[in-house]
Amino acid sequence: MPELPEVETIAKYLREGRENTPSLIGFKIEGAEILWGRSLETPQPYEFVQRIPGQRIEQISRRGKFIRFRLQDYFFLVHLRMSGDLWVEPESAPIAPHHRWIIDFDNGWRLAFNDPRKFGRAWLVFDDQSILGRLGPEPLDESLTEAKFYQQLHNFHRRLKPLLLDQFFLAGLGNIYTDEALHLAGLHPLMISSYLSEEQSNALLSAIRQVLREGILRQGASIDWVYRGGDFQNYFRVYQRTGQPCPVCATPIERINVGQRSTHFCPNCQKIPEKVSVSS
Question: Whole-model pTM?
Answer without folding.
Answer: 0.94
